[in-house]
Write the structure tokens for this entry.
Amino acid sequence: MPREILLNAFDMNCVGHIQQGLWTHPRDQSTRFNTLAHWTDLARTLETALFDGLFLADVVGVYDVYGGNADAALRGGVQVPVNDPMLLIPAMAAATQHLGFGVTANLVYEAPFLFARRMSTLDHLTEGRVGWNIVTGYLDSAARAAGFDAQMAHDDRYDLADEYMALVYKLWQHSWADDAVLADKAAGLYADPAKVRPVHHHGKQYRLDAMHLSAPSPQRTPVLYQAGSSPRGRRFAAEHAECVFLNGQSEAGVKAIVDDIRGLAVKAGRQPQDIKFFLGATVVTGATEADAQAKFADYRQYVSSEAALVHAAASLGVDLAKFDLDEPVDASASNAITSNVAAINRTQGPQWTKRKLLQQMVLGSRQPPIVGSAAQVAEALIDWTKATGVDGFNLSRTVAPECWTDFGRLVVPELQMRRAFKTAHRPGTLRDKLFRQGDRLPASHPALRVPAV
């Protein structure tokens, strides 16, 4: 019998997220992203379809690698304008009871003391339904916006992240005792000072002498997502992540990463089951295969090749505008998402060209879509879990909101019929829903092993 699949919607507080150009489709509603109603409607749709969560991407820079400026990104709405994803979560949480929220935040540009309070606040307001997608960034434009000449080297960003995590763990896990808050009105005693202690951290990058400003939230530490697939990123994930987001490669490639990270986690003192893996996926479905293929052909008419190259250029760290269609692209000096470069080299060979890249981006991204009837899609998703060991999927937006309603209306019943998807939401925090082991981090997690002060 197949395992129960976990499912997130994958979206971003912008017009054009992954499938570039599809916002121009007549039925697409992504231009409503500036309105709360757009997001509360989405949250209710996802909860009705029994999705586990909404995974919100984010960047804090602009895609200015292609052509050496942001003009093409602005023309195509390629993740710009992009609004703060965190501000959406309380409204969506108020509109739902069960949906989880994974929010991306770049720790390089977030002061850890204030960020820790912001995440604790969200965990309180959502009653324990929030997760943090830990990223270290890949855009020089973001570094310049924050006052730096350029971003740090790839592996140095992860070294910074290790210290950052140690610091926020101290704030979330060790500053307040679980029973510090008494709220004793008769005695006029809200919190016991003896059970709240300051954190003293004097590290290479950060200094802090302060107590956490928030009392313990339902999960204390938010569910920890991470998406690094480079060798350094895998080590970081094995140490810290509870959920790892993988982008599409071959089945063998995905399985190799899953096995490697789980093996590294065991070496770090964790258990293999401490980590869930989510594979990025794009689905175009219909009641029949013919319906799905017709929809796919319709969607393809609205793809923007230029916008797709803008996004790819930023993630690869290579100005693709400098290369002719059939000229080999040299990405050897990339300081962006090095795992993306490695993935293209594996699939296209080291002498890949823009023409080959565009041939791969049939829906405006490098993620090959799953196109088929609801039954075919369900079987494909189950096959991926069996072949690779992934636990679930992050489904990227195509034409919204129909991509979400189609999946819930058509594919979810097929998965349920195969006993590969839940039939009702379970109560509890996001962590307990995902792992069924309680609200808090397991004892094997390094957050519980950092020095308390």
Summary: Residues 154-174 form the longest helix (21 residues). The chain has 15 helices and 14 strands.
